[in-house]
Amino acid sequence: MRFVCPVLLIVAAFVGCSSQPYELASVTGTVRIGNQPVCGGKIMFAPIAQGDLRNAGKPAFGQLTEQGHFTLTTFSAEDGAIVGDHWVTLFRDEETQPIHSGAAPAGAAGFLATVRLPSGRIAVPSKVSVLPNQLNVIDINLTPEEAKKYGREDD
Fold it and tell me: What is the C-alpha separation between 105 and 62, in angstroms, rounded?
């Protein structure tokens, strides 16, 4: 019995150390500019510190697919984002080019027009909230004017 107690303490210490310091919730969504899905970029959800906390936690990132869809990752693949309010930033990925762009060619059934981010990064003008214990579907819809106004070329 004396041997079991120290072993349980060691196991409990390791289990306690492996837990995440922040609560996470799944986040997925779509990014659109002018009602067209955005591809060739990444999205970042940066948590906003609450109250006296100075460290709001690690940002979550997602890759934009051809259809403008994303799923966020913070610590491990597709684990979501920290629960709470976030500022969202879109980043252009120079290596990824859209498959389609502009209007559908004549006779193209099922054509999905996509756009590339018009600037190096765009700060989404309103914060978003990630709620606990659920799948958060957060769609980002910007007008071309908003994308231009809040966009910035990377230096």
Answer: 30
Assigned CATH topology for domain 22-152: Immunoglobulin-like (2.60.40)
- Tokens linked to 78: 């597709």
Helix ranges (H only) for the chain are 4-18, 144-149
Whether 26 and 131 have beta carbons less than 8 Å apart is answered as no
Calpha distance 24→51 (Å, rounded): 19
Instruction: Tell me the per-residue pLDDT of 6-38, one tens digit each, with 9 for 90 and over.
Output: 554 444 444 444 466 899 999 999 999 999 999
Q: Where are the domains of the chain?
A: 22-152
